[in-house]
Amino acid sequence: MSESGTGGSGRGRGPQRGNASGGGAGAGGQSSGFSGRGRGRDGSQRDAQGRERNRGPKRNFSENAPSQRTRRADPARLVAFEVLRAVASEDAYANLVLPARIRHHGLDKRDAGFATELSYGALRGQGTYDAVLARCVDRPLDQLDPAILDALRIGAHQLLAMRVPAHAALDQTVGLARAVIGAGPSALINAVLRKVSAHTLEEWLELLLSDEHDDTRIASIRYAHPEWIVRALRQSLVAHGRPVTEINELLEADNAAPVVNLVALPGLGTLDDALESGATAGELVEGSALSSGGDLGRLASVRDGSTRVQDVGSQLVARAMAAVELNRTEAQSAGQVGEKWLDLCAGPGGKAALLGALARQQGATLLANEPAPHRAKLVRQALSAVPHEVWHVRTGDGRDVGAEMAGTFDRVLVDVPCSGLGALRRRPESRWRRTPKDLADLGPLQRELLKSALDAVRPGGVVAYVTCSPHPAETTAVVSDALRKRDDLELLDAGAALDKVSLPGHLDAGHELTAQLWPHVHRTDAMFLALIHKKP
Which long-range CB contacts under 8 A does 60-65 form with residues at least 24 apart? Predict the structure, then answer.
């Protein structure tokens, strides 16, 4: 049976904040529930023979008779369900699973867009949706079968945050459950989602927060972030010189679907085909573009690697390191040798490709180091568009490079493994996986890698310490520890360096010589940059 206005899948055209279609039973209108029966003049319900059937209060029924209800899984919703299942049961990453499932089920552009919004939206909003579902289920959520809980989250996102008619969201989600989980669970899912559909998202939030007085708890439920991350991001704002009152803007920015950023490798790539396909020129950095999505693999420049998908924050920090003015060595001044650059933690290769292109323009060479062989292979693939004489890939522990190649490099980028708190909008499942323990566990590795980078750089050279996290435990604390242990180091003005390579020329990202980008201010990932100069 086709749903009104949207075809059989019943899908809308995009997200809708704080509003669910329909209400009450949420099944898209109500029938009398009595085939062939009418209502008497006295308001009683009588059958064809005039006998009254006393069934008590009026009941809500689905529009569809049992024989007409959906019994198959809509492919787009099935993709979303498979993504959530892989994330929950296999510890998979949504951004890696989703494209493969879309291809497997042969979704067209429209259905792929629907599956993407449904997958990422259900994952991002999990905390809020679970709080709603807990009010609608008669047992603790952790006692539900995980597959049932994932189907409920998919249904809740459609009902509360997408322009999908309530009856379509119910019918299609129940059909999905019936097809892939079973008839018994589908009845439970139908009953629970009917309760969810009784209120809009804002109405649910009002109910959930009516007795809450703790600001952290309120923000956690309203913006679907674990409480510890809310506290961590508040601390991060203050540490980098921004008012704590921006926290709600930051949390909301984390929940916005990110625009795809493109970069044309300098001197090698062009954005012409991307712009002809609807992309718009980037506003923050030269050679960048913003894409509305779609299958970017069809662009020739993306296929050959000369144009790449890369967040503009990553573009800015790489360009800033490459643009720092350094005192040349005698050999360089004599034209006998060019600069040597090092990307110490290069996998999967996005920044390495940009650095390789910039190194080629500046007559330098690049060594890209990556410890994991499979990620080192990705680095080679990323660098394939750059002439091979410019770069080399080393497979090994970055902590060993400083001792093995002490004083070798003019510029070193060390983009350390981190909590990823600055990229929550791009990795929707990560906020529910990370714990405060991750910060403590990563700290020693970050310090060891920075020490190796500082040992590897020559006197007069520069190390760019980069994280995709604004947390002070991963940013300013690590840099301060390194500076405190040595007297041959000094901070350069990272904010000024970013301004130098940005199109507006004034990002307002600097604070006490380090720099921090923000999703709610710059519309980038929350990249941190410190430029550490080794004194000659």
Answer: 60/24, 60/25, 60/27, 60/30, 60/194, 61/25, 61/27, 61/30, 61/31, 61/33, 62/27, 62/167, 62/170, 62/171, 62/190, 63/1, 63/27, 63/28, 63/29, 63/31, 63/167, 63/171, 64/1, 64/171
